[in-house]
């Protein structure tokens, strides 16, 4: 028997991140349209009453570190962490602008960490961007096998091996080129190599662009659990070239959308409404729609991380759907479902639970199901995930106190 | 042919940490005696003109975190690093005072990391100190093989394995019980487990007490170099029970004295003079002499670290003798000589080089040789270390830019 959320109330009721509080305004006026990429924020959203209500959440647009006037950067989101603050550049064709990348490279030696899927697509382009009109910089690269199952100590050692064999020193820069696994591994390698060198994130999946590349969580898996070994370590910048999404398979695009939806649900009702109006544009990969969705996602995550970098409280809200979702990933074995697919089903379970607890009404639950369904994401857990399986996996994570990991 | 320092001038001249600047006052009045352990600093040293000249270097004795009145703690040295500040407790019998340790334990779960040599001597005592009149705390332990050659990723994974299998959560505390290798590995494991948990240092060798346990450098070796993978990570406290030195072999005691001598040479002339008067007391393990030597060493290191936590400049002065010393360790293979033995020979080479460069006169060089000889430390490199061997090893470290590692 597949589990229903109600069966799991006892196991999950103590999780602050498993359920939805009633923040979505019912019947709020339609407030959004696909914004122009030439604006740093969406004027139509700003003008709506609901938007003004949310304005305290709007991330600052960085006053410094702005791209040059001719740049195609549509947005810069600033992650405000004191002396560890950094910009997130978002736009189409950013890898065609060497200056943008080069201004954040420290020293003359760069190690690009990527994988067998991404290297044939973008390694040459990134190497060009790092070295164009810049003969002082030399670039090494290490190409790891692709997949969550390689997010382990043995694969991490390949990064250290390459760095040591290349005799990189403390003034080098590591560049993460790929999805979330590459970003997490490269970030942890940068945190630990010579006790810390600079690094740059170039996420190439929507999931990495809206979630894992922002916030400084890095690490690897232990055979007994995800992300148990790592560091909080912030990059010099995150460079999101939305053109890289053109090579992303549909299933992976949808997986990233699950996290985009999450931001709307936990803290940004106007953004959720915008998604309801623009899901078809996102699925059709309209550049301006993608850029806006990434921008608002990064702003939301940046705001939360700035208030709670090391997850003492607020940051746990980013884990909506992750209690059930992680259980699905663990139960199926990593790689069977994409992370976002598990989170989508987990979010529906959380919405169902919230409804049964009387925290949200039926209409909100329906909107959650509808938007995820439109994104072609799973809205029920896999048949093999029985109530007992959910219970045992979630109980283990609660015992560990690490249910909030991996966001 | 064994190398002389003069042969190495060309290779090492650019190293700021290889040579001695003329800070030792010649013919300064004898200013020191073995201090009473009931004082937080040495009154006779304070009263000397030379001491006043050095007073700006004196570390603050922590106004808070003082031990209870009945405590046998003779000294608390405060490492001032803002919100990462912590106390170093120094005294005889501190492991017989459960309160001292327990006040720094966060959460209810403790993992003691130790090795096969130290565990039979002190693990039971430390476990008692952690749990006496404190039934809420449970203690796990992991006993690693002893020696520098085990300071690697495979052995580090045993710490993570134990922590994960024991289902420790973010509120646990790691305790490093042993020498420098244990402290470095336990500290890095604490930095990386669940992206950072609390840890406490209980160093049981003089080398660890005066050097490696203070300052937050943690890490492991890569097959191609020492300490290439790690973190800057500060403990909750360092607890130095000088009674643990009673089980330390003579050679290891002398090895630690090499670093004690270093502090005198680089920044504390009165302390150096005190050592000249009291070396026989140190070698005879007189508790008050050991406690004073450890205190002044920790104060000196704490002052340097507080000014330059991540070694952008000043901290490199702590590496006097280490350019040549590391070359000896690398050339002989780790474990053939103790670290302090290599540093002693390296310090004499640095003094010789400084003399040849005209930076210090013959009498100072002689005092360096005399004090290290009295401590029964090597004052020449091993015969097998030829000029060519020194040159190639030092050149490689310079190329890497990591010549300042491992202090």
Short recap of the structure:
Chains A, B: This is 3-dehydroquinate synthase. The structure is a homodimer of 407-residue chains. With 407 residues, chain A is an alpha/beta fold.
Summary tags:
Dehydroquinate synthase-like, alpha domain, homodimer, Rossmann fold, globular, 407 residues, 9 strands, DHQS/DOIS_N (chains A, B), two-stranded antiparallel ribbon, 7-stranded mixed sheet, metal ion binding (chains A, B), 14% strand, disordered C terminus, alpha/beta, 43% helix
Secondary structure layout plus pairing:
2 copies of one chain form a homodimer.
Chain A lengths: L8 H4 L30 H5 L1 H5 L21 E5 L6 E6 L6 H5 L6 E7 L3 H13 L6 E7 L8 H13 L7 E6 L1 H13 L5 E6 L2 H7 L4 E6 L2 E8 L4 E5 L8 H18 L1 H15 L3 H21 L14 H11 L6 H18 L5 H13 L12 H14 L7
Parallel strand pairs in A: 2-9, 3-4, 3-5, 5-6, 6-9
Antiparallel strand pairs in A: 1-2, 7-8
Helix pairs in contact in A: 8-9, 8-11, 9-10, 9-11, 9-13, 10-11, 12-13, 12-15, 13-14
Structure write-up:
Chains A, B: It is an enzyme of class 4 (lyase). Chains A, B: One of its GO terms (biological process) is aromatic amino acid family biosynthetic process. Chains A, B: It comes from Panicum virgatum. The structure is a homodimer of 407-residue chains. Chain A is built from 15 helices and 9 strands. Chain A is α/β, with parallel strands linked by helices. In chain A, α9 packs across α11 (287-307) and α13 runs antiparallel to α14 (362-374). In chain A, β1 and β2 form a beta hairpin. The longest helix of chain A is centred in the last third of the chain and has 21 residues, at 287-307. The first copy, chain A, has helices at 9-12, 43-47, 49-53, 98-102, 119-131, 153-165, 180-192, 206-212, 250-267, 269-283, 287-307, 322-332, 339-356, 362-374, 387-400; strands at residues 75-79, 86-91, 109-115, 138-144, 173-178, 198-203, 217-222, 225-232, 237-241. The interface between A and B is medium-sized, with 35 and 34 residues.
